[in-house]
Amino acid sequence: MPRRRPEGTRAPNGASTIYLGADGSWHGRVTVGVKDNGKPDRRHVRGKTETEAIAKVRKLERERDNGTVRKPGRPWTVARWLEHWVENIAAPSVSENTIDGYRVAVRVHLVPGLGAHRLERLEPEHVESLMARMQTSGSAPATAHQALRTLRTALGEAVRRGHVGRNVASLAKPPRLTEAEVEPYSVAEVQQLLMEAAKRRNSARWVLALALGLRQGEALGLRWADVDLDAGVIRVRRGRLRPKYRHGCATPCGRKAGYCRDRVQIRKDTKDTKSRAGTRSIGLPDELIEILRRHKDRQDKERAEAGNLWQDGGWLFASETGRLLNPNTDYHEWKALIAVAGLRDARLHDARHTAATVLLLLGVPDRTVMGIMGWSTDMRRRYQHLTDPVLKDAAGRLNRLLWEGPTSEETAQ
């Protein structure tokens, strides 16, 4: 039987009500706030029994009191929210590289894996299941981590806007992530690389990578205005961005935008360094100063030979016609260089590991190394990849010091 209020009384304004409807179900009405038009936002729940309806009313009241009630309107699915967030909220406020990473995570992993869920019904277990499926299908743990970080950021914004009451991505257990141990090139291998690099165009580019640990984008984004050869200082201020294009053809050419003959670049060439630590001045060794002077002489000759074809952007490392180098071209040049040098394969970024390790082995203070490398935090541990010969030499020195006594050479030092 439906509950009846004593005659002559009425429920206080905003109070919840529970009643038996003509359809045989129990209904509850809960006022959770005020709509945008100023009218009360009164929500409806339904249950087969009075007990079930009461439980749903109490749950809605708790959400109201905790400020976690979903906003009125069409319910968000995970797919709709992620697509809205990445293009309308994230894109205007983050860097080009960051939004590219967000878009890949949303389009390739999150929407296909979680998109059909209602946003407010997404659970940590759903997220953990997706992480497991990604790794089972061959994705690296780091890729799963990137997807999880993207989802956590997107859901954090949904929480701030009141669309959901909690960030389930923050509750989900991330996959285990192990740091890959990177073995830097030895001093002899670095010397071999530099010998081969000296035979190629823009050889100074590889000296900067191996001696100073400049990132690819930092090296390619350098202008001559950033280099003071007389003072022996180079200033890192910006990074080269990967080009992005759209079609410029009048009729569809059938190619990807990057291969369209009339392609139009839609991304700027460079951007300022992303952190205060990234913007830095680095002192140049005397030998590197001479290498850069010779590099400038060669570039001046190329400018004269190119004549009107030369596009002067003031780039430290440029093509034969003065244009800014493409990161993809630079990557393949690195691979060709280590192949010709007869060295084991390594990522371009591994040259940075080599430079950091050499600085640490030379006893350069940590704070100085952090300044040269542009580290925003103490990353010394990640770059202490000492090669076996160095470890063996250190063990030999320790052995002579403690048990055999120092050599005459070491005593003189």
UniProtKB/TrEMBL annotation:
<feature type="region of interest" description="Disordered">
    <location>
        <begin position="1"/>
        <end position="20"/>
    </location>
</feature>
<dbReference type="GO" id="GO:0015074">
    <property type="term" value="P:DNA integration"/>
</dbReference>
<dbReference type="InterPro" id="IPR050090">
    <property type="entry name" value="Tyrosine_recombinase_XerCD"/>
</dbReference>
<dbReference type="GO" id="GO:0003677">
    <property type="term" value="F:DNA binding"/>
</dbReference>
<keyword id="KW-0238">DNA-binding</keyword>
<dbReference type="Pfam" id="PF00589">
    <property type="entry name" value="Phage_integrase"/>
</dbReference>
<dbReference type="InterPro" id="IPR044068">
    <property type="entry name" value="CB"/>
</dbReference>
<keyword id="KW-0233">DNA recombination</keyword>
<feature type="domain" description="Core-binding (CB)">
    <location>
        <begin position="76"/>
        <end position="159"/>
    </location>
</feature>
<dbReference type="InterPro" id="IPR002104">
    <property type="entry name" value="Integrase_catalytic"/>
</dbReference>
<protein>
    <submittedName>
        <fullName>Integrase family protein</fullName>
    </submittedName>
</protein>
<feature type="domain" description="Tyr recombinase">
    <location>
        <begin position="180"/>
        <end position="396"/>
    </location>
</feature>
<dbReference type="GO" id="GO:0006310">
    <property type="term" value="P:DNA recombination"/>
</dbReference>
<dbReference type="InterPro" id="IPR011010">
    <property type="entry name" value="DNA_brk_join_enz"/>
</dbReference>
<dbReference type="InterPro" id="IPR010998">
    <property type="entry name" value="Integrase_recombinase_N"/>
</dbReference>
<dbReference type="InterPro" id="IPR013762">
    <property type="entry name" value="Integrase-like_cat_sf"/>
</dbReference>
